[in-house]
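Summary: Need help interpreting a holo structure output

Steps to reproduce:
1. Submit the protein chain below together with the SMILES for NDP.
2. Request a joint structure prediction with the ligand placed.
3. Inspect the structure token block that comes back.

Expected: a single structure record containing both the chain and the bound molecule.
Actual: see attached output.

Input attached:
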Amino acid sequence: MTTSAATGSDSPDSTKAQIGVTGLAVMGSNIARNFARNGYTVALHNRSIAKTDALLSEHGSDGSFIRTETMEEFVAALERPRRVLIMVKAGDPTDAVIEELAGLMEEGDIIIDGGNSLYTDTIRRESAMSARGLNFVGAGISGGEEGALNGPSIMPGGPKESYESLGPLLEQISAHVDGEPCCTHIGPDGSGHFVKMVHNGIEYADMQLIGEAYDLMRKALDMPVADIADVFREWNSGDLDSYLVEITAEVLSQVDAETGKPLVDVITDAAGQKGTGRWTVKSALDLGIPTTGIAEAVFARALSSATDQRKQAQELESGTLSAAPADAKTFVDDINKALYASKVVAYAQGFDQIAAGSAEYGWDVTPGDLATIWRGGCIIRAKFLNRIRDAYAENPELPSLLLAPYFRSAVEDAVDSWRRVVATATTMGIPVPAFASSLSYYDALRSERLPAALTQGLRDFFGAHTYQRIDKPGTFHTLWSGDRTEVTA
Ligand SMILES: NC(=O)C1=CN([C@@H]2O[C@H](COP(=O)(O)OP(=O)(O)OC[C@H]3O[C@@H](n4cnc5c(N)ncnc54)[C@H](OP(=O)(O)O)[C@@H]3O)[C@@H](O)[C@H]2O)C=CC1
Ligand SMILES: O=C(CO)[C@H](O)[C@H](O)COP(=O)(O)O
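--- attached output ---
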């Protein structure tokens, strides 16, 4: 019997792989290389053999790989309990691969779905696999190509016992911040994919806010793209320090080789989406959580893609527009603060949705853990996640991130700038759906009274839907079509 250096466990057969990866496109191939670079023997499988061979010919020297062609060979190449990471297209392809694997695996083996699967699919799959004696782990993985290779953020759900065997491997290949892995057990069944879904929703909001900040500098201040790139570069050394702000400077600095124009000016302005943002909003609607920043970001992508409609609408009158702000430097500072405050709102809403999802499904997700594992590896990694982590460490029952002392004071400090940015954008005819809705959310949240009282009155008028009063308990109805006296409902 030999001992595997990578797992530290007794390995009955040193010729077997400790982990297998099936699906060797961008994410799977890089994660497989990451495992190999960390000392694991990795069994490789892909539906079409070309990807397996490309990986081996280009990166075979990264470590120890076992090449397999069929699923039977792949499963046979793994030490027990077998651990297989599926990195294929979400949806039907994932179901097909799970089914094929499940027919070959044995009790106690672990199937990990690392794709962007819908959490309700994960709940269904976990239950089906568990009935067949297999462990199923739905793991959200973020970081794109570079993260997959050098250390992603990993959000594994599923049975706690599976994490005992799997956790050390996943933690080892994940990103590390201050010595801590960006990977932890999230909770049962669909929790890992739910959390990854909301992570992606926040990613959408973050990118939309960055886009609006860029658009304001462009349209309100007429700044050249290269100067805007410099502004983002500078912001990345302050409170907004984050991967997305960093790469915004990179993308804006890119010059198109063919035309000599900024690349951003030759890219069609119709944003794509694969589904995770939309799922986040659908889930927010079902849970009754106002995730408005993410919703605006999803709708902004949809509107951007309505190219024919947009073309025809260009003739619509703008009305009288105001002039550009007199002091460009002050306005850029205002945008910085508006971006920060709106970003806090997006995270606050995302964490509210995770708390609601966790309560609905009984997952017991720890918000501070998410802030910890999102600090590195993932697309939304940002310096201020340290502050979110501190906020939940100080008060695990935080009613809203906006009420954590640090964020409260940062947002209160930003609010005048935020209002100036939204007001200026509106009077100049520049769309800022995410900035504006985040500010409205903030104002609504802090309002003592909302017009919902009128909504209740109207509902009672047309449909006898009843209402509660502020001054006494009970449920009431006004006899609107009678003598308009109030009765107890
Ligand atoms: N790209 C990214 O930045 C990120 C992606 N993800 C998720 O990770 C997963 C993998 O993503 P990515 O690497 O981009 O690859 P893709 O989502 O483009 O999927 C391509 C892979 O899926 C395989 N595949 C497709 N259909 C089937 C099928 N019916 N049966 C078996 N295999 C099939 C392909 O095999 P073949 O080569 O034979 O066609 C290929 O290996 C996805 O779920 C994605 O949402 C998560 C985080 C980031
Ligand atoms: O999961 C990811 C990062 O965390 C992917 O990059 C995600 O698929 C991007 O989503 P979309 O294509 O909808 O913008």
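--- end attachment ---

Reviewer comment: Confidence is low (pLDDT under 50) at residues 1-12. The two ends are 75 Å apart (CA to CA).
Status: needs-info
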